[in-house]
Amino acid sequence: MTSAVEFRSVSRHFGPVRAVDGVDLTIAEGSFFAMLGPSGSGKTTCLRLISGFEQPSAGAIRIFGEDVSRVPPHLRNVNTVFQDYALFPHLNVRDNVAYGLMVKGVGRGPRHAQAEEMLALVKLDGYGDRKPAQLSGGQRQRVALARALVNRPRVLLLDEPLGALDLKLREAMQDELKALQHRLGLTFVFVTHDQHEALSMADHLAVFNEGKIAQIGTPQDIYDRPATRFVADFVGSSNVLPPALTRALGGPEAWASLRPEAVRLAAAGPVTGPVTALRYLGVGTRVAVRLGETEVAALIPAGQPLPAEGEIVALAFDPSALHVMEGAR
Amino acid sequence: MSGAVLPARGPGDRLTGLFWRRPWLLLLLLIAPPLLWLGVVYMGSLAALLLQSFYSIDEFSGIVVPEFTLKTYAELFRAQNLDIILRTVTMAAAVTLACAALAFPIAYFAARYAKGPWKAAFYLGVMLPLWSSYLVKVYAWKLILAKEGILGWAAERTHTGFVIDGLLSIPGLQGSSLSTSPIGTFLVFVYIWLPYMILPMQAALERVPQSMLEASADLGATSRQTFRSVILPLALPGVVAGSIFTFSLTLGDYIIPQIIGNSANFIGMAVYQLQGTAGNIPLAAAFAVVPIGIMLVYLWLAKRAGAFDAL
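Structure tokens for the assembled complex are given below, as produced in the milestone run.
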């Protein structure tokens, strides 16, 4: 399979700040790729490097094998859905969507027809005459999507496109985006700081930390086998165990991660501690147990007996669930 | 024992409470003085002006006859008066176009690129000329443009005097030097009103977010297309606001054409003479209504052209 986007030790420095620092990255054609990380981790800069709004300080970027270091944004075959949507307020929805065709010199009739087609694709048929200001947040998001798709890009970049939507709408749009990507067979590159969004939507993701990629892999790789403490901390509600505790629980003396759903409460065990908090989550209850300096969470499925706060309990788990991390950080 | 839960209230707190219960009361108190000013003093005098323009002057006694008539307006259409109006409107249009062309790059730089000290320098540079007397500036320009002024001197030294001579031989723009030609009047008008074009333009351009320009480029637009299809339409309300200033200020000014140029009459000068030495208040009022009418037509056209769609 050809790679849609390829980074070869790409860096982008702003003065002394290394926003992106020696990133190697390959995004396969047709994949739904997420860039996940906290704010300031370099994920958005990476996206802007692909779209051409930033230029690398070092390294090379290839889009479908072609070096784009000297190609300005308007000549790259990629389109972006902006975080604030950036819809043109003086144009109606139809002209917003048709903008990409207008600047290419497509006549009024055909470009309006194609714009209507795109609006139908994002389920906004009949909204062509409205101004962006007359739309809701979710509708604006769809217009931005239709506008980016009308040029038939080979890669679609999405910069936190769901960040401004409320939870229910966000979940609905997640499903729709995923379905759309399947239908069009396009490469989607998606920037987000929301772990759940990245894990549920992407088929591959890169976790960014301080301008570098901390881990790259499938959602399952990253959730089950975080490479570093940062990834374990950031991606999941996974327990991060210091070396001494890992050893006490029967593992090697190294940092390890342990998923709460793999942990059970037992009457006796090598390590015991008091229950410090109970949090009801619907599908189960998250029980926090203090083991020395570390708080370890266990997810107790609904219907099972719960300990009281302050009760001393021991932990039990399937040894295969304990994942030892190679990375020091 | 009942301990007071709420803190003790003084007369000031009671007033605050009253305003909280009746928000319109505070609003009324705040807007009453400006409303009185705007409604009575400003609109009232405008109405009085309008009324005067429907009176006429008795040609023998020179006394204003307070009877409704359109005779005074008919006088505006006499060749000599029509000339004044046409000359003033042409000048105002030319000044506005020149101001817009000069102001746009300055405003664009200030809105998009100037940061920190550069921005302060920009504001200072634009506002500084407004701090010195208008008359001083106009007289300074008279010296600059005079035959023996610095422009003439520089042209002589660089052997480019023919450029000025060429300009001064264009029919309608003749004069013995730039300071006695309509070109001089035009240059000084442009200089004096330029800040009033730059500031609203800059404010409008500042409101165009960077992501909108990026979106345009992302969708395949060249810089020129982005300028035409995104920046210009979004800056248009600012351009219109600025042009209202430059256009109406030029329409009403009576000092610059008196000091610089060939002494041809402008609307402002005509009003000044008619209400002063000639004592023809009705015709002066009728002349003063002309710029109001022109501005209303201009705004109507601008609205129809979609200049305010981005607001």
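The interface with chain B takes residues 51-53, 72-75, 78-80, 82-84, 86-90, 99-100, 102-104, 147-148, 151 of chain A (CB under 8 Å). The first strand of chain A starts at residue 3 and ends at 14. Further analysis is deferred to the final report.
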